[in-house]
Specification:
Length: 183
């Protein structure tokens, strides 16, 4: 049996599996935006009945955008139990994973000045003042939504590092007076 990855635009041959979790509209919108910006073909997994075991959101986004859909047929007998196993064992990238990845990119692109680049400065504030990720996000920029999107896409800009440092020092000074100083 050929277990290769195939491609199609015949979306109607696939169907959602009864009992699988519902498609999350916010996640779908974000995925559509991402795929519209840059499509990275990632196969969905289907069973012998063409039910989607993994990739409902990718399927829906590709169908919406009219993009080629890549798919792989799992072993016969794959069903809802396999759906649960796949989704239970998946782990998405955390903000700290992204931070580390973008720091490596800065190090590669700016070998002599990487320590002065946004993700390295962000990490320095976080480590030096023992601040949670979200607190540092608040210190380095102005608009929370756009700042978070920019961070995740590798476009972090630090509005005023000197001010962020002053604010971090001030937060640390609150330690003895307020138990939630880090927030």
């Amino acid at each position: 049996m050929n277990r290769s990855i195939k491609t199609t635009r015949n979306y109607d041959q696939f169907r959602f599996m009864r009992g699988n979790r519902a498609v999350n509209s916010l996640h779908l919108e974000r995925l559509i935006d991402s795929m519209r910006e840059k499509y990275v073909p990632t196969p969905i997994i289907i069973n012998e009945d063409n039910e989607i075991i993994d990739g409902q959101h990718r399927f829906s986004a590709a169908k919406y955008l009219g993009l080629p859909l890549y798919y792989f047929r799992a072993l016969n007998g794959s069903g809802l139990e396999e759906v649960r196993i796949i989704n239970t064992n998946n782990r998405t990238w955390t903000n700290n994973d992204l931070l580390k990845s973008f720091m490596e990119k800065e190090r590669d692109e700016y070998p002599d000045t990487f320590a002065t680049k946004p993700y390295h400065l962000f990490d320095w504030l976080k480590r030096t003042y023992s601040l949670p990720f979200q607190t540092v996000m608040n210190l380095v920029g102005s608009d929370p939504f756009h700042r978070a999107v920019a961070f995740r896409k590798g476009n972090l800009k630090i509005k005023d590092f000197s001010q962020a440092k002053v604010d971090a020092i001030y937060l640390c000074a609150m330690k003895e007076f307020y138990e939630h100083w880090r927030k």
